[in-house]
Here is the input.
Amino acid sequence: MTFRKYMVLAGVTIFGAVGDTLLSHGMKEVGPISLHRLPQIFLVILDPWVALGILFLLGFFSAYMVSLSWADLTYVLPATSLGYVVLALIAKFALHEEVSLSRWLGILLISAGVGFVTRGPALTHPPKAEKVNPEPVGSRGRY
Amino acid sequence: MSHHAYTWGGITAIVLASTTGDVLLSRAMKQVGDVGQVWRQHGLLKVAGRILRNPNFLLGLTAMAVAFYSLLLALSWADVSLVAPASASLTFVSNAIAANYFLHERVDHFRWVAAILVAGGVILLAA
Here is the structure.
């Protein structure tokens, strides 16, 4: 793992968190969509908050694809879950919302999870080794 | 169908579609190879061409679009504080299972603990 790779993971984290926030704000503005008027769902992208959210999620998606090109899915997902922590910290220190005890506990659990996964290697199954050097039986865990 | 059933139906759709998408996209990007390296050696066009011609990428993208619209629908029916953490935490666990089965990633005890800690943490954040 190089510095540049950690920056890509940070990009996944931040673009994803900001994009989700913008999107949820936009959908609150749009209001409930009935199943009988499903085509309405294609028009929500005209809402400026939803549009900005989609823009950020495109940035998230690009960084996510880059990270998946050199790291396991089960590495990237927990490692970038710090986005939830970032959101809670923004709520606390920028928006001055009350952060309850259970939220702090949630932050602690996520941080511990991130610590667990980043201790190990980023890539456990190099695609090219698949045919050349098959894994020994029993090395794949329980599933 | 009750409002509740709509919401949980939506959450199930999000989890299934995004797990399918994540697995397919991860497989596609492993086939493409390290984006940084391919870029330096062959240029950005080569990277884009390899990604856009990969069938797993296109299928994964379709699954992600389904997941995205399920999320929008579910968000219009229920609070984001229920939909987002419920679908995210379930997806962490389903992805760990699917990555082990379909991608042959070595999901050792550390990674299982990580997935479950993050899933639990996400639920607590919404509590």
